[in-house]
Write a structure and sequence with these properties.
Helices cover 24% and strands 24% of the residues. The chain is of the alpha+beta class. It folds into two domains: 7-85 and 172-248 and 350-418, 3-Layer(bba) Sandwich (FAD/NAD(P)-binding domain), CATH 3.50.50.60; 94-165 and 251-346, D-Amino Acid Oxidase, subunit A, domain 2 (D-Amino Acid Oxidase, Chain A, domain 2). The structure holds flavin-adenine dinucleotide. Residues 10-16, 33-36, 41-44, 46-50, 196-197, 226-230, 253, 255, 343-345, 369, 371-375 line the site of flavin-adenine dinucleotide.
Length: 434
């Protein structure tokens, strides 16, 4: 293999592959190295792949809307065929319940209007028209089933919601990552799988390359950490972990995969639902099934783990998420042992990602995706390209942050928003909602 690269990208998940694609289009000779056997076999492959526009900050919302257009025209964005076919964007729309926990979504409405993102107000009767299987009693705050008040309505009811038509999900996140790999390869990008990076080499304050577990050295003047839940381990190897204000940690998460509410064609008529009243989210899946995840309410303990040593066996977490959602969807069957997946988020203290340089010249990072950045991968790749090219030309991004222009929205985005040294963003939901 040619070992003369302009940049090594650690990881071949969706963000790693989209970054390779964007850099290769601009003439960079990139090499993605992944310890797993194929693209998207890390946390990306377990993603619910929900594409939505609502976030708790204006910049986060703008970034998500810009990305929406890339998924809506996924084959057009890629510009190449894939022998495995393209993953498909299913634009099913999304409903968010108005609750006291989200302050009736007032902030969000302001962001949607500012960015001209389509949305509709839903009265309770409109919600029931779209999803007649729902029980609109309020059950908040979300509780675990061993709480005596679990399943008891609190006397209030859901006062309405918002419908976002610009939302949906990708049919197969792993395939979409393979698609991005093929698109990158069409522009000369290289990929090496089954290769674990065990050291980041440096000389005189600048990164010089990586060392693999088999002892091979691969050199490049730019190395980018896009290692998902292993991001903190890679930062430690590079000696930059201690020089950042923010950390990243691996959080164990379970998602259930169960039959949808009885008597309803959820696969074709269903929508994504985000419900902070019961602390669960769901999205339709083929076979009239749904995926059910947690919105990380206070009652759910955070299980921080070593990404190389955690249990992949489902626990009560999976069943509890389903039981909470069953309060809203009473005809949902609750399997004794729901099937699903166990995977990891890579979480920052404010659940907003880090797209940044580091204190080691030539070493960059796209990390801390906090369970909500699959949807942002295409533009994350573009932002990383802009950031890296600006820094390599001498711009001091820490003092004079790079601005990226969201092409479709024609809107500037100050990349200092994603800084590793930012103050914790208190506008955040501090959950997977970002
Ligand atoms: C259960 C779950 C549900 C989610 N749902 C959604 C959703 O609905 N919508 C959304 O937008 N986001 C969602 N996310 C988040 C989203 O999936 C991630 O933000 C995104 O996939 C991260 O992509 P990545 O390329 O950064 O990382 P990853 O896909 O984790 O890729 C990192 C790669 O780095 C490799 N690697 C690590 N260390 C090394 C090493 N030392 N040497 C070589 N290779 C290494 C790994 O093998 C891995 O393949 C979800 C995440 C999970 C876990």
């Amino acid at each position: 293999m040619n070992k003369n690269y302009d940049a090594i990208i650690i990881g071949a998940g969706i963000i790693g592959c989209c970054t390779a694609f964007e850099m290769a289009k601009k003439g960079w000779k990139t090499l993605n190295i992944d310890k797993l056997a194929a693209a998207g076999y890390g946390s990306t492959g377990y993603s619910c792949a929900i594409i939505r526009t609502h976030y708790s900050t204006l910049d986060g919302t703008a970034l998500a809307y810009e990305n929406f257009f890339h998924w809506q025209d996924w084959p057009g964005y890629l510009g190449v065929e894939d022998e495995l076919g393209h993953a498909i964007f299913r634009q099913c729309g999304c409903v968010i319940m108005k609750t006291p926990a989200n302050n009736g979504l007032k902030h969000m409405i302001g962001y949607m209007n500012a960015l001209e993102i389509p949305w509709h107000e839903l009265r309770p009767e409109d919600i029931l028209k779209k999803m007649p299987f729902m029980d609109l009693n309020s059950y908040s705050p979300p509780k675990l089933p061993d709480d005596p008040a679990f399943g008891e309505p609190n006397g209030g009811s859901i006062e309405g919601g918002l419908h976002f038509p610009c939302a949906g999900y990708m049919s197969d996140p792993q395939l979409s990552t393979h698609n991005a790999q093929r698109a990158a390869e069409a522009h000369g990008a290289k990929f090496q799988f089954n290769a674990e990076i065990v050291a980041i080499r440096q000389d005189k304050g600048r990164v010089t390359g990586v060392t693999l577990a088999d002892g091979t050295d691969i050199d490049a003047p730019v190395v980018i950490n896009i290692a998902g839940p292993h991001s903190s381990k890679i930062n430690e190897m590079a000696g930059v972990a201690e020089t950042m204000a923010l950390t990243t940690r691996a959080l164990r998460e379970e998602v259930a995969y169960i039959p949808g509410p009885q008597g309803f064609d959820i696969e074709n008529e269903g929508m994504i639902s985000s419900d902070s009243d019961v602390g669960s989210y769901s999205r339709p899946e083929v076979g009239n099934r749904i995926l059910v995840g947690s919105e990380n309410p206070e009652c759910d303990p955070h299980e921080w783990v070593d990404p190389d040593n955690y249990s992949t066996d489902p626990t009560d977490q999976m069943r509890y998420q389903v039981m909470r959602l069953a309060q809203r969807m009473p005809t949902l069957g609750i399997p004794e042992h729901p099937t699903g997946i166990v995977s990891l988020y890579d979480v920052t203290p404010d659940w907003i990602p880090i797209y940044d340089k580091s204190d080691l010249d030539g070493f960059y990072m796209a990390i801390g995706s906090s369970g909500n950045q699959y949807k942002n991968a295409p533009v994350a790749g573009k932002m990383m390209l802009e950031l890296i090219e600006s820094c390599e030309k001498g711009q001091d991004h820490d003092k004079e942050p790079v601005t990226y222009i969201l092409e479709r929205l024609n809107r500037p985005l100050d990349l200092g928003f994603f800084s590793r040294n930012r103050e914790i963003n208190n506008e955040s939901s501090f959950s997977v909602l970002g």
